[in-house]
Amino acid sequence: MTGDEIRKKFLQYFSDRGHTIVSSCSLVPQNDPTLMFTNAGMVQFKDVFLGDEKRNYNRAVSVQKCVRAGGKHNDLEMVGRTARHHTFFEMLGNFSFGDYFKKEAIEFGWEFLTDVIGLPRDRLYISVYKDDDEAFNLWVDEIKMPRERIYKLGEKDNFWAMGPTGPCGPCSEIFIDQGAAVGCQQPSCEVGCDCDRFLEIWNLVFMQYDRNEAGKLSPLPNPCIDTGMGLERLAAVVQGRTTNYDTDLMMSIIREAAHITGKEYGKHDDVNVSLRVLTDHARAAVFIINDGVIPSNEGRGYVLRKIIRRALRHGKLLGQKGSFFHRVTHKVIDDFKQAYPELNNNTDFIQKVVLNEEESFGNTLHFGTQRLEEILQKVRKEKLTAIPGDEIFKLYDTYGFPTDLVEETAKDAGLTLDMEGYTQAMNEQKTKAMASWKGSGE
Description:
It is globular and about 75 Å long. By secondary structure, the chain is α/β, with parallel strands linked by helices. Helix 8 crosses helix 10 (about 325-335) and helix 9 (about 300-315) packs across helix 11. Helix 2 (about 45-50) links the parallel strand 1 and strand 2 (about 60-65). It has 14 helices and eleven strands. It is about 45% helix and about 20% strand.
């Protein structure tokens, strides 16, 4: 089953059950200035959940474009190195605004995964909030899930909140057992373990409380349902792949990146990482630019610039010297233009923006290298053994010069990096940025 088939089956399943199909909203949130990017399916419905907006439907289903590359999701350096970290991904979600609640949400989730997608029932496990006896009993009584395959977890794992105050509630997650071979091999391994054995597929949020500033929970007059399931993750499970990158949603882009760079995917870990980075970041760049963001030195444009420049650094690690990344983005557009037809209208613009940034970064590398040489001369003169952390951060923050390249150059010179000082300088910068972008920590 292809990723596109999963998209269509998801929308059709919920449409057949009275849900209005709602198109993905922009990656630039229209109703929430505190968010850097749309990072979940519920974002476009936030005002509905809060009761500030009424719509002509009370059931919705969507496939939402999401970007997580800032704030609490700022794990950009992990992308390409793990099986499931991404800057851009698609989130499948069904929503109820005061209509159905836990029973139907659980039944819908179970039926879709087992009857429509065909996941084996005996490999599925459930988690519920430790005090949510209602959800636990629904899984046992309605779904006939064995009690030993239902885990009661705490607030950290199974209680969702929109923020410090406002709508919140317990959630129930559906996991699939991928087998002991991919796990931590510990006897204590079970649902909730950090290893890959029990993989979370779908999160069903039961939005039933309103939390005030004192932390008190009061029942919402109209409880809501908000669910989220990563398309790439589900595709990996369905297609029997160990990483999201090996699904049909990404593999054709990886092959194109491998062709462009003259490398082979699947043989060397460092090459694999770089090709995955090019693939993920090309997807993110295409959709962010398509929604009107261009590279800059602040806000969303700065995040886009970091994404593109990280991709270009990995291109350099693969031996690329000229402009190449715009060719990878062209493949992304080809692959996604059927699911997102608006890409057809912006193909030339997207590629022009990426190419301009590629050419600009060529100059950045040039001037960054010059500045790094000045720093090295100063370090040698002062007989230091490490490049100062604040200088490393300035190279990155001012010139966009990647820390990895600083490290490579330092090794050639017999020096190390003061990463503690770098982290301190970076945290100081983040504090300043957070002060100027209130609430961007999502």
